[in-house]
Amino acid sequence: MSKKLNLALLVCDTPKPEVLEKYGDYPNMFTNVFSRANRNELKNKVEITWQYFDVVHKQEYPDLRDLADNHTFDGIVISGSASSAYMDEPWILKLIQFVHKLRAEPYRSQVKLVGVCFGHQIIARACGGSCEKNPNGWEVKREKKRKGMERKGKKKHYLFTLLMNQVHQDHVNSLPPGFHSLATTAPHTPIHSLLSDDNQCITVQGHPEFVREVVRILLTIRRDAGIVPKDYANEQLKKLEDESANDDDDEWIISKFIDFILGELPIVPKDDIDLSTGKTFGNNILIGND
Known about the structure:
The chain is of the alpha/beta class. Helices cover 31% and strands 24% of the residues. It has eight helices and twelve strands. It has helices spanning 17-23, 26-40, 64-70, 90-102, 118-126, 212-224, 230-242, 250-262, and strands at 3-11, 46-54, 75-78, 112-116, 130-133, 147-152, 155-160, 170-174, 179-185, 189-196, 201-204, 285-286. It has an eight-stranded mixed β-sheet with strand order 2-1-3-4-11-10-9-12, with helices on both faces. Helix 4 crosses helix 5 and helix 6 packs antiparallel against helix 7 (230-242). The radius of gyration is 18 Å and the shape is globular. It starts with a strand and ends with a strand. Residues 143-158 and 276-290 have low confidence and may be disordered.
């Protein structure tokens, strides 16, 4: 018998028209990447059902009483957004309050939380961390995959690099209490992924739901509008052209999210990342920017 997951997606934005026309909205993109990961990365397939909630315009949310009484969702995913998680807009404050409630019982032990980009920052803010516009500017970097190992004393620590689509200028600049940094692109974005010590929350600053062409479209739009510096944008667009899409780790990352929601990927981090250098220890992962 296949395992089942009931997931809720909190939709925090609508993609640019150029993206929407070719690749659909966030519900479509998340559904697709979870399906691909389920098909290509997981040995034991999972039956996944989705329900979508517009938390911006309609301010829709899963019913908390129903969630507590009937365990309606196994996981709640918070999407990306062009908005900034540090702003005090009413819908953002309502979203933060919702996440804060989910961090308490009975929800803490019933439902997993997954944050992507803006969702990563929202979870951090709701749990006592902070986010801001990154003083290092936009990050759209893509680096070649690297696997390696470093020795500290008598212990060996395995490091590996993931290739992930990302387009962001905001970042989490301080860890929430009870969270570890799971990944880094230091010195640019030291905190690139979060894991709560109670294994309820996992987040990533990148966009595993984006295919490479989505990044190209967004970067071109922002370059032409003067939002992203032209030279930097052209450099990253050249990388997009030169690298094989087969190197992307989006499906692998999503497969780990699925395992995490199923409770089959308990992570017990032992050390933090040195936020000044991005030096990785223990179970941390380095993403790009070798």
